[in-house]
Write the structure tokens for this entry.
Amino acid sequence: MTTQRVERVDTVLRHRLASVVVACEDVFDPHNVAACVRTAEGMGLQDLHWILNQYGMRMLSTVAKSADQWLDFHQHAGTAAGVAALKAEGFAIWVSDLQAEHTLETLPLPPKLAIVIGNAKHGISDTMRAAADQKFILPMHGMVQSFNLSVALAMTLGHVVPRRRAELAARGETGDLPMARMWPLRRKWLDYSVERAALVRRELGDLG
Ligand SMILES: C[S@@+](CC[C@H](N)C(=O)[O-])C[C@H]1O[C@@H](n2cnc3c(N)ncnc32)[C@H](O)[C@@H]1O
């Protein structure tokens, strides 16, 4: 384990966002799943919710580039369950939807935000649409009707994440992952760099 590795893990954790999460509704194509995972991780999010109605989740590791090992996945059996779980945690639900009228710039950022991305073929479900606190559209200026869903996610996070980071910076903060979540993640991430980490920890008397 190098000092640089420990510093990198600590820096990334300090910049992690728990107040913005992504929820993918019935996104099943492994390329899209992997691209969403990689985008969310690269933007510094920690939580990805999979809301599965008809499909199981499959991921292409070649596209995800191991981004999945740095994230926490939350799976929900159906839209109603996913919405209930997110609302119970206090998240406002913003749905990216081609039928929406608002654009992101016009919406004030809530303290906790779940961004929902829809299925490539059918888009957002009616249940999700009805449950949404806000629906937004990414303006389209070309001939095609919609963006690829992982591109829509990247564009959305490209707007929302800098806004949240600016709010944090104004308070002198870099991220908002609670300390109680940071420590177990730090331990898990550092273990990735050590061969047979569990054995090493046991031999050292697991000093934490
Ligand atoms: C390929 S699109 C789905 C197209 C589908 N035929 C429909 O009518 O919604 C997949 C998902 O990406 C997101 N998306 C794509 N383009 C978007 C846009 N211009 N504005 C908002 N969301 C968009 C939405 O979440 C959408 O459900």
